[in-house]
Hints:
The structure holds two protein chains of two kinds.
Chain A (H helix, E strand, L loop, with lengths): L1 H16 L2 H22 L3 H23 L5 H6 L1 H7 L4 H30 L4 H28 L7 H27 L5 H30 L1
Chain B lengths: L2 H4 L20 H33 L13 H28 L2 H33 L7 H22 L3 H32 L15 H33 L4 H9 L1
Helix pairs in contact in B: 2-7, 3-4, 3-6, 3-7, 4-5, 4-6, 4-7, 5-6
Amino acid sequence: MLKVLICVAQRDLLLAFRRRSDVFSMLSFFIIVVSLFPLGVGPEPAMLQSMAPGILWVAALLASTLALNRLFAYDFADGTLEQMLLTPEPLTVIVIGKVLAHWIISGLPLVLLAPLLAVQYGLPGDAVLVLFYSLLIGTPILSLIGAIGAALTLGTRGGGVLVSLLVLPLYIPVLIFGAGAVGAQASGMGAGANLLLLGGVLAGALALTPWTTAAALRISLE
Amino acid sequence: MTTANMNNPISGAKESNRFHWFKYAAPNNFYDLAGRLIPWVTVIAVLLTIVGMYIGFFVAPTDFQQGDAYRIIFLHVPAAWMSMFIYMVMAFWAALGLAFNTRMSSMMASALAPTGAMFTFLALWTGALWGRPTWGAWWVWDARLTSELILLFLYIGFMALQASIDDVRRADKAGALIALVGVINVPIIYFSVQWWNTLHQGSSINMKSAPTMAKTMLLGMLIMALAFWAYTIAITLYRARCIVLEREQQSDWVKAAGEKL
């Protein structure tokens, strides 16, 4: 089973590598959104510092929803997804492999880029470290939960906005704990509780969402 | 079992001595039952509303803190209760539809969603109208208000997903899945929002209402809740009948019913 997982993940990574512009456009979106907020609310440093965790997390959320349609749509379009459903291998393993590749492609760059952007907002060093950890734990959760939305909306007329509408309410606990961790660290309370809760959500998502995504794929492909 | 019992298992012929659990899973049986129930439930809903409103406006005493502005509670709290209750019921029918593959269950779930969304919106709207004179703010990011807003998003997501899929059975199942994911997430969302709110306790507005409420106020709220429940049943049955007619339009009994009109 591990072989199947690695095989699926490798395939997705290779395909994404051949179409690198997708990743870069999502990252550019993230950078632009983060840069838009100070233009909207004003450059006052103290205010930006207090708003930074929330803004960075919301921008990460929005950028992840942009990347979601790449998870299943291309395979759905050329028939590979149907073959994946027909294999004797468990569909949950295939889903985990695809989500893993998706996270490496779209979540990990966000994790690595966010500390740089946090400097733009003047976040102190320890808060930036907590931001890194919170995104490191949080972005896999976003990929896992987003996979459910991506699987349900395969081939529908709604477009990318429908996935966002479905998935953003489910992202809210992740946002609260993630941004809360950084905010708690910045205000001196310590990020431990929030990060632990985030870890709990990750554990729960890892256990439950692949099965739900597999069920959603079977519904979408009948 | 005699051969007489083998005939017409769905129509529940009187010679059968078994209770057929799936009798009303057949759209034509449901259509008839709903048609018989709707007038009665509507009458009950209207009566309960009149009684509840009377208690709310004339019997319940004036609150010593909030004056008469508190009376919107007789709409606000029952609407909030119904919004959450309907989501549970919707998820229940959606789960049944997924488990048993009965299309009538999914039609019930689809019929419940707009009413649930309406009550959620009503709760938010009346909450804002209540908040303005009492707290001085149209909206506060209190845990319960925020969770109610997220519940509205969940309802809208359900309806949007079902509207975006052309194949009706696929739409049923996809909506059912998102409803079930939502129902599992509602406690998580509520808990996390409560956590977020207590950590960021900026406003001094204490949302814990007084534990001792005048008995008449509580009675009024309960009666209004029952009235909203009766209304929900009536309107959902009516909407489900419309959905049945739309979906089953190719079947003989619908064509026969259409010719009778």
